[in-house]
Amino acid sequence: MNPTVKHLFGVGAAITIGALAPLVSATPPAVAAAGAHCVRAEQDVWSSGPSRTVTARGCSIPSKEHRWYTVEIDTLVERHYKGDSVDAGVDRSTTVHGRTIRCLGYTSDGGTGAVDWFGCPPV
User: Fold this and answer.
1) How do beta strands 49-50 and 34-46 pair?
2) Which helix (H) or strand (E) holds 9?
3) Do 92 and 77 meet the contact criterion of CB atoms below 8 Å apart?
4) In the chain, N or C terminus with fewer CB closer than 10 Å?
5) What pLDDT score was predicted for residue 61?
6) 17 strand-pairing partners
7) By the 8 A CB rule, do 74 and 36 touch?
């Protein structure tokens, strides 16, 4: 390949990478986590780790929708199962106070007051 063409490709790649770097490093405000607070929550813990779903009550939910939510939980009850199915039964339960988790989103049923947070990676 001609050295001039190689040089032009290199310059083009450098410009492209330089233009994309600020886009990757900057976090747009819409992606920032919104805060929520729940009084009590329950999470299942399997032999492979905690569930990515948390069922909570007494939650204050931000008025605007976001991609990620930071959820502060006063009391989190973790049900530890004997295996990887509900049929195996509960081995023990632990209670954790003052836990903060991040979740992708939520669904809520206004009638029961329960909020199901989903997409919560393990802490």
Assistant:
1) antiparallel
2) helix 3-25
3) no
4) N
5) 84
6) none
7) no
Q: What is the CA radius of gyration of the chain?
A: 22
CB atoms within 10 A of CB 57: 13
pLDDT in tens, the chain (123 residues): 555 545 544 555 444 444 434 433 343 444 456 889 999 999 999 988 899 999 999 999 887 888 899 999 999 999 999 888 888 889 999 999 999 999 999 998 776 789 999 999 987
Cα–Cα separations (whole angstroms), residue 46 to 38, 75, 93, 100: 23, 19, 12, 20
> For residue 33, what pLDDT is reported?
67
Give rounded-to-5 percent helix, strand, coil for the chain: 25, 50, 30
The answer to whether the beta carbons of residues 93 and 57 sit under 8 Å apart is no
59 Cβ contact partners less than 8 Å away, ≥ 6 residues apart: 36, 37, 38, 39, 71, 108, 115
